[in-house]
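User: For my dataset I need records formatted as: sequence, then structure tokens, nothing else. Please produce one.
Assistant:
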Amino acid sequence: MRKRIRAQLPIVYPEIEHQHAEELRAISNILDKNPECAELVFNDLLEGGITPDKGREGMTGEQVLRAIIVKQMNGFSYEELAFHLADSRTYRAFCRYGIADKTPSKGTLQRNCKQVTAETLETINQFVVLHAADLGVEKGRKVRTDCTVTETNIHEPSDSSLLFDCVRVLARTMTQAKESFGVVFTNHQRRAKRRMLGILNAKTKKKRSRLYRDLLKVTRNTVSAAERIADELKELAGNGNMDNSLLATGLRQMLQEVAGLAHRVIHQTERRVLNGEKVPAAEKVVSIFEPHTDIIIKDRRDTLFGHKLCLTGGESGLILDCVVEDGNPADSTLAVEMIKRQEAIFGRPPRQVAFDGGFASKDNLATIKELGVKDVAFSKRRGIAVTDMAKSTWVYRRLRDFRAGVEGMISFLKRCFGLRRCNWRGLTSFKAYCWASVVSANLLLLARHTLE
């Protein structure tokens, strides 16, 4: 039986006098005043046709949300989170576990936390922002917007390492199929590894090209074997018992997914290495484990692998909005949409906005002014007169200086809430991870404002 909240609060250990404990109590009070947040998480936990009044008593929506906050606030792994929930009386009380309650295992925590969607966490963030507005902490009248990159959890990509990854994963999956169903294939993983290491250490272009051709040959042979075994598993899935059918279906899906990515890796390697073509970033695969990863070139010097985030912050330091972008769109294409999103959150546009120089354009300025914004400041004017952006030079300079504060907010998210690198797998989980960091940071900042 799963519940949204625990109707009867458990008996907990006495509260301790410590700054962090006071912050957690303040966060708890904020969540208690916004019960809709736990309701949203509870609805996510019931996805898939789960009936709440049947089965074992799982984690409540309230407990899952609070566990996510503790995890992101401290950068815990699920194993560390499980330990601290069992060991720390402060975290037990915050997550609504009593003295005699058994705390969840790392598997239970991972399974429940990953069920919470990015859309749910975004809505929770809006509740937090509006609660801050009710308290007078954040009015949404003066905002600043900037972009950053959150990396996915992948290694530095190269054509040879991607080809080896394809061979390694396919060989591993086919080995499982061989042990379970007796399929036959030749494992070329060791040969592929030797070719990859030879490419890394090759001194001449001619030798590297020869090694690449052999590695491509090995990869093609492995992909062909994987596609053949996938067809065999399809027949086995229809003829065996339920357990064997489920295993055969899972292995077949894995082989088909990785084989599809392997074809793309082979194609891009042939174009880049053998034909000397320049493959557009949008067409490249940089990881077979996180195929959604984008290539982000920052300031023409750093190449990052992840996703571009556009963040809007307010005077209070809260992150009012966050968008995970698809690809690497120019900043100038994002300015108007971010202001429209602010209008949707607060029911009115902000009075003053500050942007980085990359957002600057005369069309953006005109459109933002039409939305009702009084003063706009781009840190680099790019041919735009100050009088067109703000009512005076003094106002423009104040807004330009105000914009710099968003860099500190982004640094705070990356250093303290794990936004530098996402270790959750898949695009939907990536977005949820980013929003989990934003929500946790906003709750801590709002708690500190209320304590002041």
